[in-house]
């Protein structure tokens, strides 16, 4: 069973930066679809950024130019560098993954595995 563990959340002021990290375990090969999702209080979960390995990288319009998703040197590690943070970026950030990439690996698609989340709070 794949397990995803997030870290790196916290509280910063508007305009600040944070980097969240995700480490996956329990799968001996590279996961082809990994991404970040977030959910604010009272809102639906939304896709933030996603890597569809060897195909594309996707970002929500609201974070383009501010957030950067990247893979770590270690297998199945993922980062999200968040710059110029805004209060509306606050929420629980979840790492998610699927074994297979391709057409099903989308910000609006279904992911097979989920972490428990790390909280990001941006104060104005």
Task: Chart the SSEs and their pairings.
Layout: E1 3-7, E2 10-13, E3 18-25, E4 33-39, E5 46-52, E6 56-59, E7 67-71, E8 77-82, E9 91-98, E10 113-114, E11 118-123
- What is the distance, rounded to the nearest whole angstrom, between the alpha carbons of the first and last residues? 40 Å
Number of strands: 11
Oligomer state equals single chain
Share of residues in helices:
under 10%
- Specify the structural class: mainly beta
Principal-axes shape call: globular
Uncertain residue segments: none
The overall pLDDT, averaged over residues, is 96
The H/E string reads: EEEEEEEEEEE
Proportion in β-strands: over 45%
Could you describe the largest sheet, including whether it forms a barrel?
Answer: 7 strands, mixed
The total of helices stands at: 0
From the alpha-carbon coordinates, what is the Rg to the nearest angstrom? 13 Å
What do these coordinates show?
This protein has 124 residues and is an all-beta fold. Helices cover 0% and strands 50% of the residues. It has no helices and eleven strands. Strands 2, 4, 5, 6, 9, 10 and 11 form a seven-stranded mixed beta sheet that branches. Strands 1-3-8-7 form a four-stranded antiparallel beta sheet, with no helix packed on it.
Task: Summarize the entry for a quick read.
The protein is built from no helices and 11 strands.
Throw out a few tags for this protein.
mainly beta
